[in-house]
Amino acid sequence: MTKIVEMNCETGVETVRDMTDEEETAHATMLTAHNEQVAAEQAEADAKAAAKASGDAKLKELGLTDEEIAAR
Amino acid sequence: MATATYKFLGKVTADGSSTVMTLSGIPQTHRDIEIIFQAKTGTSNGAAGADITLNGDTGSNYRQNGWGINGTTQLGNAQATTHFDINYGSGPGTGSEMMGWCRMYLLNYANAVDHPGWYMNSSWDNYTTGAQWWSGALYNPSSAAAITSVTWTAVYTLEANCSIAAYGIDYS
């Protein structure tokens, strides 16, 4: 069972308890969304890196040096 | 003339068994609030993702516009979603050791429908370069509400000693 820790500023009491079924469901939904977001960010980063490598290769074929490509 | 203060309100600290942390009962005795999130992970647990909600509100009431870098990739995003998404970086998940830090400042946390602010977060670890973000933020609940609680929901079990602390601020 997933746990929640809570501190109440007014009382100064800290408690650790199990999630309710509703909280478990909400957490599972959040986990799915988080994993999808991480995968999307990674895919975007991979696509940018691939496009840059492809562009650099084409520039090199046109005769640019590595220094000229890096200076863009 | 009002006295300027920066007063500690409370702190919740993870013991290594929980996935969610809440700081509740935040007193409405100050003008602004600063919330400091300390994240860390060892190789078994992770704290890379931090979904932050206020007052237990999971409606699409959180607006954020930010820019930053994750590893070597520069990113920018704008979103209106169900939480503030504190991104400590894709790298520092399970399997690496990470330290992360976020300071969130919200103006006028008393009864209102608009709670504007900003946050900055940074992470670093021993394998990747981590992530650094700067974001403007707005918490816009469906009806006027004071901010009385802050919740951090993590993807993995929160490492022991991860924490949320809140400070009340007054100024003239």
The number of helical segments of chain B is 0
The ordered H/E elements of chain A are EEHH
Mean pLDDT of chain A: 88
Helix share, percent of chain B: under 10%
Strand order of the largest sheet of chain B: 1-12-3-8-9-10-5-6
Task: State which percent range the strand residues of chain B make up.
Answer: over 45%
Roughly how many Å is the radius of gyration of chain A? 24 Å
Give the neighbour order of strands across the main sheet of chain A: 1-2
Strand content of chain A: 15-25%
Radius of gyration of chain B: 16 Å
Main pleated sheet of chain A: 2 strands, antiparallel
Low-confidence stretches of chain B: none
SSE order of chain B, one letter for each helix or strand: EEEEEEEEEEEE
Q: Report the strand count of chain A.
A: 2
Poorly predicted segments of chain A? none
**Overall spatial form of chain B:** globular
Q: Which outline of chain A best applies?
A: elongated
Individual helix count of chain A: 2
Our count of domains of chain A comes out at: 1
* Count of individual beta strands of chain B: 12
* Mean of residue pLDDT values of chain B: 85
Explained architecture:
The complex is a heterodimer of chains A (72) and B (172). With 72 residues, chain A is α+β, with helices and mostly antiparallel strands. Chain A has one domain (3-70). Helices cover 64% and strands 15% of the residues of chain A. Chain A has a two-stranded antiparallel sheet with strand order 1-2. Chain B is mainly β. Chain B has one domain (5-103, 128-162). Chain B contains no helices and twelve strands. Chain B has an eight-stranded antiparallel beta sheet with strand order 1-12-3-8-9-10-5-6, with no helix packed on it. In chain B, strands 2-11-4-7 form a four-stranded antiparallel beta sheet, with no helix packed on it. In chain B, strand 8 and strand 9 form a beta hairpin. The radius of gyration of chain B is 16 Å and the shape is globular. The chains are: A alpha+beta (72), B mainly beta (172). The interface between A and B is medium-sized, with 29 and 32 residues.
